[in-house]
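re: ur msg from earlier - yeah i can do the fe (ii) ion complex, just paste it... oh wait u already did. ok heres what im feeding in:
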Amino acid sequence: VTDGPRTRSNLREALASLEPIASRLTDLSRRHYHNPYATVWPESIAPESAWCTSPELTTLYGTPRWDRMTVPARRRLAFHEAANFFSLNIHGEAALMAGLAARLARRDLESITEYLHHFLDEENKHSVYFSGFCRRYACIYRSRQLAFPGSPFSTEQEDFIFFAKTMIFEEIVDHYNFRLGRDPRLHPTARFINEYHHAEEARHLVFGRRLVSVMWAACAPAWGQDARQSIRDYLGAFVTMAWREYYNPDVYADCGFDDPWEVAESAWQDPAQRAHRRAATRRCFRVLRSADIFDRDESDAF
Ligand SMILES: [Fe+2]
Ligand SMILES: [Fe+2]
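and the outut:
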């Protein structure tokens, strides 16, 4: 699929309207420029000695299994889930950095290029922290997300999908960062990483929400009903895939559960966890609906 000249010039104009916000965010990134290499890391973190995830944000919270777990077992789960959360961020940020890097020399994205350089720089620093934690104290858990080769979408649709996926991913992550960064029960290292990530992601989200709305308004009318529906379906499936990563059988195996796949499946199906996912995705769906990208509440899907 190729893009028509009309949508391309619409997009250029639409992106030009983002220049003031992109330059404000660029200033903020420069003012809050952060060095991730000055951090003093503790020698070790004993999984059962402190909370590394707030208990309410673990994947077994609210399920019958949680009630049967001792406090040390709950803390162990919270520790491995912190490593899993940081790992899924590493994998997500790797794809994000690749997508940003591929767009830095694009003439048609010129009005936002300067900010994209900061975006990429900040994602790399986040991954320095996430992998610093995982490699020192736990491991980098693998991702089970599959990449499908080949794309039925045009370049412009791919651009939109890339930034929409970025926003969805960051909205969900930020639900956790915001809460974990303020929880006094958390181990100071885990708490700091979340607090720092939230501070920078707040800027990425301001940018991402605006960018996605503006791109859709400028381009989607010319794409046709079928293409718009395929994009909606694709993004809906992406939300489910993004959430699946939080319920990692490898984590349950590390916590000593005999049937880690069964634990993952029953946690995923549990009504309390379903309600948690809906609440955590609410803001993101609100943005997608108010930009007319989604036309109904897609959260029934998961
Ligand atoms: Fe990040
Ligand atoms: Fe980000």
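cool cool. The first helix runs from residue 5 to 16. ping me if u need the other ligands too
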